[in-house]
Structures are given as C-alpha cells and as structure tokens.
Amino acid sequence: MSDELAHDFFPIIKVYKDGRVDRLWGTSTLPASIDPQTGVQSKDVVISTAPPVSVRLYIPKSTTTESTRKLPLLVYFHGGGFCNGSAFSPTYHNYLNSLVSEANVVAVSVDYRLVPEHPLPAAYEDSWATLKWVESHFAGNGPEDWLNRHADLNRVFFSGDSAGANIAHHMGLRVGSEKLVGFKLNGIVLVHPYFWGEEPIGGEVALGHREHLDALWRFAYPLTSGSDDPLFNPGKDPKLGELSCEKVLVCVAEKDALKDRGWYYSEVLKKSGWNGVVEVLETKEEQHVFHLINPSCDNAVTMLKKIVSFMN
C-alpha cells in the first residue's frame, strides 16, 4: 500500500496513488427509524439499481393523526463537496427529523453517487432521476405509498447545503427547461451554496485558498471548462432566468469563504429576467454549515425557523 497522495483536499477527502480513497468525515450512517424526540418516521427506498440511487423518506407525526390532509414536499440534497456525506448520515438524518417536524412537511432526502468513484455529472443525474421518480406520484398512484397518501405535489420545495445547494439550484433550472409538469416547484432554499468563479468577488480577494476550491471543483468534474462553468458559477449561465419557482431563500454565514457567492447569486438572479423573489439571510459570526455542526445553537434555531416560515 502506497502512502503517496494523488489528491489532498483536507479536511474533506484524500486520494492515494494506489487508488485508495480516504473520506475524512461523513462516512457513518444511522438506520431509518421513528425519532423519539419528534415522532418523525423515516424509511429508505431504492429508486434505481443501475445506477444505484436511494432516498430516505420522512413523514411528520401529524400524518398519523390527520391522515387526509396532504402536506408540502421537501426534496433535500446533502452537502459534502460532491465527495462526502450521505442521506443516511447522523448529521442529515437528525437535521431532516428536526426540519420535517418543525415545518410539518414530507421529505425526500437524496442519496446520490459520490466523487471520485462517480465524477460529476453523476450527482446531478441521480438527483434528476429522483425528481422524475417523485413526479410519478402526481396522480396518487406512484410506487411509494407515503408520497401517494401524504405529499401535495402542488407544493414542492427543494433545499440543500453547500454542494447540495448547488444541486438544488440546478434541479430548479432543469425542472423549467425540461418541463417536469408532474409537480409544482414553489421555492428553493440554498444554504451556504457551493458556487465559485474565475474572478474573485468581495472578500474572496483576500482568501488564501482560492486555488484549493478551483482544484476541488476540477477534481469533482474532470470534464469541466473551469470555475466559470455555469454549473459552478450561475452568473455565467444564460439560462439563469428560467429558474422554475416563485421564490428563493439564500442563507449565508458571515465567516464562510462562500458567503460572497451567496450574495452574488441573489444579485445575478434578480438581473436575469427571473420574475420571482429572492431573499438573503446572513448569520453573523458563523462558519460554513454551522447549523449542522451545532444544530441547537441560537443561530441554527433562528435559521431553521426562517426556513420553516419560507415553506409555510
């Protein structure tokens, strides 16, 4: 076994020249369950075996007592630089339990294939396959009973953090461009979105690790044109105005290196011809995905409440 590194993206992932992959976080998992704190139920569903795509579904406690009323549906895309994380990790399992309980929504958490074993655009394609699977429940006769019984596909929201926010944005665009008519996308919540660009903006000028983010993107998507690829820099996307929803909430954190990209996204979206409403919530004194690291802190609770009100 060689310890010679081919790629070192500490603290996310290391890849060795002999092919070994060392994910530095996000590898542990929790089973689906009934959450004792919130009463939220979850279960796992395989929606495709080739390629392997699964989801974890969540329904709130209210579905057991108010079984006739259908609830908004949240489709969630986890973060991790396209390299790490899963829909089954303790971090995302616990976050979705809280969000589903507080917002009283049904949720589909997407487990997409990861880099480097499956370079981009695999994660985008898996996410799109999931949306088409969700759409198959529109008439109430899809393959999954929980969605047939409890999800209102006229009230669909997308959300994700970091790389998952990047995916959520692109799925919102694709719903419009490919005319996915089996559900109505009402809004998108982008939490600390993983966007970038060739030219530094705002506080990025002073950042010491711009090259690190450029290199991580090329690692994730070897066929990319670079950091101004519209998949990485929405400001370079001529189709940005086709975003298929009425409202967007962008959450940024003051001490996050990606903060200015979140603000920039809101500005270019407003100028794109899109006729929706975009709002930015900036949390002071916090770092990237602080709400997942310390979900009980005051700022995380405040942000959760804001996302809940956005969906209701």
User: Low-confidence parts lasting 5 or more residues at pLDDT below 50?
Assistant: none
> Structural class, from helix and strand content?
alpha/beta
Strand content: 15-25%
Helices and strands, in N-to-C order? Answer: EEEEEEHEHHEHEHEHEHH
Termini Cα gap? 53 Å
Number of helices: 8
Helix content: 25-40%
Explain what this protein looks like in three dimensions.
This protein is an alpha/beta fold and 312 residues long. Helix content is 29%, strand content 24%. It is built from 8 helices and 11 strands. It has helices at residues 90-103, 122-135, 145-150, 163-177, 210-220, 259-270, 290-293, 298-311, and strands at 5-9, 13-16, 21-23, 41-49, 52-59, 71-77, 106-111, 151-161, 185-191, 247-253, 277-283. The strands form 2 sheets. It has an 8-stranded mixed β-sheet, with helices on both faces. It has a 3-stranded antiparallel β-sheet with strand order 1-2-3, with helices on one face.
Topology:
Layout: E1 5-9, E2 13-16, E3 21-23, E4 41-49, E5 52-59, E6 71-77, H1 90-103, E7 106-111, H2 122-135, H3 145-150, E8 151-161, H4 163-177, E9 185-191, H5 210-220, E10 247-253, H6 259-270, E11 277-283, H7 290-293, H8 298-311
Parallel strand pairs: 6-7, 6-8, 8-9, 9-10, 10-11
Antiparallel strand pairs: 1-2, 2-3, 4-5, 5-7
Helix pairs in contact: 2-4
